Amino acid sequence: MTDLQESAPVTTTRASARSAVGGRSASSRARSVVKHAVLIVVSIVMVYPLLWLLVSSFRPTNVIFRTPGLWINDLVTSNYTGGWTALAQPFGHYIVNSAIVVVGAVAGNLFACSLAAYAFARCRFRFRNMWFAIMLITVMVPIHVVLVPQYILFNHLGWVNTFVPLILPKFLATDSFFIFLMVQFIRGIPRELDEAARIDGCGHGRIFLRVMLPLMGPALATTAIFTFIWTWSDFFTPLIYLTDPNAYTVPVALKSFLDATSGSNWGAMFAMSIVTLVPLFLVFLFGQRFLVKGIATTGGK
Amino acid sequence: MSAIGELSSLRADRARRPLTPEEKAARRRENNRDNKTAYLFLTPWFLGLAVITIGPMLASLYLSFTQYSLLQPPTWIGVQNYLDMLGDARLHHSLKVTFIYVVVGVPLQLGFALAVAIVLDRGMRGLALYRSIFYLPSMLGGSVAIALLWRQIFGTQGLVNQLLGLVGIHSTTGWVSDPRYALWTIIVLHVWTFGSPMVIFLAGLRQIPAMYHEAAAVDGASRWTRFSKITLPLLSPIIFFNLVLQLINAFQSFTQAFVVSGGTGGPADSTMFYSLYLYQKGFGQLEMGYAAAMAWLLVLIVGVLTALNFLLSKYWVFYDD
After folding, report:
1. Can you give the pLDDT at residue A153?
2. Full residue range of the structural domain in which residue B215 is found
3. CA atoms within 13 A on the CB side of A177
4. Which residue has the higher pLDDT, A67 or B87?
5. Is the ipTM of this complex over 0.90?
6. Residue numbers of B between 114 and 173 with CB closer than 8 Å to A
7. Which of B261, B281, B262, B259 has its CA nearest to residue B270?
8. Residue B85 in this model has a pLDDT that exceeds 60
9. Which one of B39, B140, B291 has the shortest CB-CB distance to A277?
10. For the ABC transmembrane type-1 domain, which residue ranges apply (chain B) (predicted)?
11. pLDDT digits over A163-174, tens only?
12. Same-domain status, B85 and B203
């Protein structure tokens, strides 16, 4: 496991090593100033569009197109009130739809991926390596190649315009990425713990529930957070399966905004964009530690 | 180890030491129990593999040899779809657009991610703050809200033109509505989301023992020499991992092009990504057989490029073990 947070000792040893080699000379201080200057400029470029979006959502529409700056002369909230009711349903309806899908997807991934990961990491079974390789390869299969038959299947079952096609696959562990993430995590848990439980007479079921799951907290949190963000933002799958406007999730509703108001009501659309970004931002803010660790783990050790 | 490293180093783990008969019996009992548990625990995954992945893949292979509009049963037409693809100028164009996006966007994004990761070295003050700021866009970037924002920023009266106006350049070009520039605005959006490869690079840089750099510095190696002789080789497995994943993802890009162009791939097909064209064929014109054939061409392209990547990796990726 890569541990990004608890690396204070490394930092200090390296800093002291550096000062032992070259000393904190004037040139290294100058370099550090330049570095920060560059990083600050890049940071501004990175967040400017987001801040501009936020500010614009509080501006009258006719002003949005004349002000690149971030100041507000007259603050209006009509974009929010107007935008909330601009579509066939109040915007809250689509948020509820999205919430149902997200909760289902998170539950599915946590359930199915943790079971599969435990089996891959702790059981010896026939063809384990073959199945493991297949699992890794499915991470790379383009979604398009299964799209058409999947649609036909779900259509036959009468599940188009329901949330089943968006949730069910998660309960079948189709997000192999998370299985791999959890396998990595379980490998880092000392085997002595489950062996001790086994000597006490626990079977795999109880070891999984009582020993492994409580220890897997960080991996489960990472999975839940990534699933939340990706499902909340997912546009492609809902676009295909949800054609009834009442079933739209937030991204599809937001997109239909563009057609419904024919691009004239940018203020309202910006306001609703902010509304859809707020949950993502909050999850990012509070889950960042897990996000960083999770993504670093998949690429690093 | 990364998923990709893992894949290339899978080996059977067998017991090396000969076992006594009692040990063998115990091992067998345990293996039997493990076997049952494993297959039980993996039941959801097996079901998913069969019903959601492999079954549909086989079905899509079959459908690619048929004409199928969802309304009537599929009719077998042999390789006709594939032959049609050879003569489909719009498909060739969508491949070209996608290739430009991949060939320019992916290296640019990775280069940026690596450069920023290297600047953000370990001892740096404010590292956590910078990392959050750079990482945020890649968490939001896939959403429709950001794609809509992009469409507006690069519109005729958008933020970019407003800013250009401040420095005296009065452009009346709507960047997203000009076929010469529309694709590039999506490439800019892609580069803007360099945060997640950057986080992976940062983790990788942390794995490089500081003493390598210190030893080299004592020997008088320049910054550039240390970068090219220490950092790059030791980071190469991670560069490789990012490259493979980003390539696979970039080929499947959809949302940004769909939203920026309003679903048309316009102006003048300049943002007609391959997956957007596939969507239009399948779900717009209900040519499901053709869409299935297009999907298999995508698998072929992604597969060949990934295999090529793995082959070439022998010459530049160093596994240090």
Report:
1. 94
2. 81-314
3. 17
4. B87
5. no
6. 116, 119-120, 122-126, 130-137, 139-140, 142-146, 148-150, 152-153, 157-159, 162-163, 165-166
7. B261
8. yes
9. B140
10. 95-309
11. 999 999 999 999
12. yes
